Amino acid sequence: MAKDKPTKLKARMPRGLADRGPAELASTRAMLETIRKVYELYGFEALETPFIEYTDALGKFLPDQDRPNEGVFSFQDDDEQWLSLRYDLTAPLARHVAENFDRLAKPFRSYRAGWVFRNEKPGPGRFRQFMQFDADTVGAPTVAADAEICMMAADTLEALGIARGDYVIKVNNRKVLDGVLEAIGLGGEENAGRRLTVLRAIDKFDKVGIEGVRDLLGEGRWENPAAKSGDFTKGAGLDEAQAAVVLSLLDRQASYEKPANETYAAGLAELDEIAALVTAAGYEGRVKIDPSVVRGLEYYTGPVFEAELTFEVKDEKGRPVRFGSVGGGGRYDGLVGRFRSEPVPATGFSIGVSRLASALSYLKSAEAAPEYGPVVVVVMDRDQTAHYMGLVATLRSAGIRAEMYLGNPKNLGNQFKYADRRNSPCVVIQGSDERAAGQVQIKDLIEGAKAAAAITDNAEWRSSRPAQFASSEAELVEKVRELLDHHGVPHGAALS
C-alpha cells in the first residue's frame, strides 16, 4: 500500500498585505529621510510608540466604525485584557502624552514614522498594513499651530520633488461643518449617526460631484446612477431645504443665509486667521481654504487639512492617473483629554507614505537612475575562498558594497548571470595566473558585456574577456571607485 505523500504548504500572502523589494525599500528610505529633515527643521523631535496598545486606549475613535473592537486587529492578553494593533499613530501619541504629561515640555512637538494596521476589507489601493509619517503639536491652543502644520506639509512635498502648483494643502474646519449641521437640526448626540453620514457624503464631492452628494444627502445613490445598478449607498435622509444648506458649502455660486450659531462663527473666524497667517508667510496658493475637506475620524474638533496632488500622469496602459490625497490631519483637542481631567489641545498631520511613494515613482520614473547592486567577486578556485573573502573585505572597508559569490562556483557563467540579476556594476575576477601576478580582472557590466551570460567555462572566459581590464590588487579599490564614479553609482566612504 503506497504511503500518502505529505501535503505541501501553499505559499500565499494574506490579502491586503504586500512584500517589498530592495528598490522600493531604498526609495522609501530616502523619502523618509527627506521628510524627517523637514520636520526637524520645524523643531519637531523623534518619538517611537509600540505597535500594540490597550484597546480601550483607542476608545471609540476607530476608522469608520461605531464599535471599539472593529476596524482593528485585536487579541486578549494572558490577563484577559484586550490589546490591538495600532490603526494610526495619533492615538498612541495621545496615550504617551497623557502618561508622561508632567515631564514633557509643552507644547510637545514630535514626529513618528511606522506601520499601522486596519482590519477592513482590502481592495485596490486599500491595504491592511501601511506606513504613515506623522508630526503633531500637543499643548498649543491657537490656530497658529494648525497654520504651521499646513506650511510644513507644503514644504515637505516640495522637498520630495513635487513642484509648486502640482499640489495643494486644503483647509476646512469641523466647527463650520458642525455649525451647518446644527442649523439644519442635526445637533445633539441623538443625531451623531446622521451627522457622520452627511460628512461622508461631503467627503465624496471630488469623486461624485455636486449631484452625487445631493443623492447621498437624500435617499441614497446607486453606483451607476443612470442605470440604477451596482451597489446602493443609503443616504442621510435630508429634505430638500436641509440638503440645499449643506450643498451651498460646496457650490461657490449658491447663496444662502449663513447659520446664526456660535459654532459656525468660531470655525469661520479660525479659517480667516489661518488664511491670514499662511498669506503673511508666503504660502498663499499653496495652502487654500476648501469647504469640501472632511476628515473621516471622529476625533477632529477644529481645523482639518488634506494634502492633495493635482498633477496627472499616465499608467502603463496609457490611462490617466490622479493620486489625489496623500496626507491629512487636523485639530483633535479632546483625544489626550480622555486620559486627564482637563482638556489638552493638539493638532497634527499624517503622510500616507506608501501612497506618496507610488506618486513619486510615477513623477520620477523618466529620470530615475537604476538601482545598482553590490560588486560581485566571483570564485574561480574553490580552495582560494579565504583569499576572495579578503578581496571583498578590502572593498567593504573602503565603503564599497561588495559580496563574494556563495553559490556553486563550478559554472562561471552562472556567476555572471547572478551578477546580472543583482544588477551589479562590475565583477572582480581572479584566477591562479592573476593571483600569482598580484592582479585581478575587473569586468564592467554597465558598459556592455551582455555576452557574459553565455560564458560557461574558464577557457571560454580567457578567450573572450569582453569589457574587461586588469588591475593590481593594491589598486583594486581605486579602480573600482573610478568605474563607479564614471557611471554615477553611489558608494560610501572608507569605514573607520
UniProtKB/TrEMBL annotation:
InterPro entries: aa-tRNA-synth_II, aa-tRNA-synth_II/BPL/LPL, Anticodon-bd, Anticodon-bd_dom_sf, His-tRNA-ligase, HisRS-like_core, HisRS/HisZ, HisRS_anticodon
All residue ranges annotated as the Aminoacyl-transfer RNA synthetases class-II family profile domain in the record: 31-370
Location of the protein in the cell: Cytoplasm
Transmembrane segments annotated in the record for this chain: none
EC number, as in UniProt: 6.1.1.21
Group of enzyme by EC: ligase
Keywords from the UniProt entry: Aminoacyl-tRNA synthetase, ATP-binding, Cytoplasm, Ligase, Nucleotide-binding, Protein biosynthesis
One Pfam family in the UniProt entry: tRNA-synt_His
Reaction catalysed by this enzyme: tRNA(His) + L-histidine + ATP = L-histidyl-tRNA(His) + AMP + diphosphate + H(+)
Top-level taxon of origin: Bacteria
Keyword hit for rRNA-binding: no
GO molecular function annotations of the record: histidine-tRNA ligase activity
Protein family membership: Belongs to the class-II aminoacyl-tRNA synthetase family.
Subunit structure: Homodimer.
HAMAP family in the record: His_tRNA_synth
Protein name from the UniProt record: Histidine--tRNA ligase
Species for this entry: Ancylobacter oerskovii
Lineage: Bacteria, Pseudomonadati, Pseudomonadota, Alphaproteobacteria, Hyphomicrobiales
Gene name as annotated: hisS
